[in-house]
Amino acid sequence: MQTVEHPLVSQSIGTRRTLTRLHFGTAGARPKVMVQASLHADELPGMLVAHHLRQMLTEAEAAGRLQGEVVLVPIANPIGLNQTVLHSQLGRFELASGENFNRLYPDFADWLTEPDQHIAPLLGPDAATNVATIRQAMHAALDRRPPVTELDSLRHALMHLACDADVVLDLHCDFEAAVHFYTEPPCSDTLMPLAALMGARAVLLAHGSGGRCFDEALSGVWWQLRDKLAQSHGDAFVQAHPFPQACASVTVELRGQTDVRHDLATSDAQAIMAYLVHLGVLAGAAPTLPPLACAPTPLAGTEVLTAPHAGVLTFLREPGDDIAAGDVVAEVIDPVTGQTTPIRATVNGVLYARHIVRWATTGLDIGKVSGQTPMRSGNLLSA
To answer: Which residues, 6+ apart, have CB-to-CB distance to 189 below 8 Å?
Structure first.
């Protein structure tokens, strides 16, 4: 294992933070997988998973099992990790700018089709060569845009580490939840074995969910670039200059914020290690994939349940439960008037996430049920 530190831009005199990566295997070996934890710094289960992954990967490397390359970032957000206010750990939004740490990542497809830096003249008939060319162009595009702020430098460093990876796992969690994934449809075939190994209860698919989140900046460039080249150069050009979906990236939601337990983290780390064997990153007998615990559904089909008025929130169903249309998922109770309002699902699906608070303000998003029929459009992510 090699430890490398990436200093971030100093936000003030006398302060300097660093991003640390742990490197396993030989640089440049394929497949390359990057795993990062807690980009939202108040979402801690991923850090404990990273702790167990570090131990497992160290043992695998010592045993000579590393055939590919693994980059592990155990703390992806040292900025947010320092945002403790009145004994409460924040870390979703940078306090200086108000920006979400998991938004506003590069639009590589736009960057690679700028008039003076267009990728088209650099592409040829060989798909593997084109993949290498596009990855090199992404690194160069980042270098042409040096970061100015501390947050810029965090995004910049993470993108440099991840933009040439074959698979990227971004470990998050929800308030209270079952394991679930967010990814793009072109990535699903590569990632469904991991969903099976981790027992994911929902896999939510969207061609860009809005906000330019970390994982979609990495997977989106490949299908978006093909679309842009088809529009500007025609379908024949794209067919003559092929390249695959060369990065499968995913947001892995590791249950809820308080699910920071060794048994869960060990199980998740073992599932990821088995997935690395499946990918060929680690030598070993291919794992037997368990049956999938869910079928992929469109993120636009998710029903977001909301509180119609303020009151005490009590749940009647647990994360991971199968829900039928008409089921009462929760109740909101006004303790002054006694008004009790049942919150019913209108779709068939899985209650994959719910809020952690038990006092509902009017309009609060209290839970999410995966539905099969798209019903939403626009920005599909929460703030």
So the answer is: none
If we measure between CA atoms, which residue out of 229, 209, 205 comes closest to residue 217? 209
Residue 8 tokens read as: 């971030």
Cβ atoms of 346 and 325 within 8 Å: the answer is yes
Task: Identify the helix (H) or strand (E) that includes residue 270.
Answer: helix 262-279
Instruction: Decide if 75 contacts 20 (C-beta within 8 A).
Output: yes
pLDDT tens, position by position, 236-252: 999 999 999 999 999 99
Query: Each residue of 154-164: b (16+ CB within 10 Å) or e?
Result: bbbbbbebbbb
pLDDT in the model for residue 340: 97
Task: Answer for the pair 129, 118: CB distance below 8 angstroms, yes or no.
Answer: no
Q: How high is the pLDDT of residue 193?
A: 98
Phi/psi for 168 (5° steps) reads: -130, 125
**Residue 72, helix vs strand vs coil:** strand
The pLDDT of residue 382: 86
| E strand or H helix that includes residue 219 | helix 214-233
Which segments within the chain are labelled E, that is strand? 2-7, 18-25, 32-37, 69-73, 84-85, 88-89, 167-174, 176-177, 180-183, 202-205, 248-256, 297-298, 303-306, 311-315, 322-323, 328-333, 340-344, 349-354, 359-360, 365-369
Tokens 């702020």 found at:
149
Domains of the chain: 2-296 (3.40.630.10), 302-369 (2.40.50.100)
Give 127's Cβ-side CA count (13 Å radius). Answer: 9
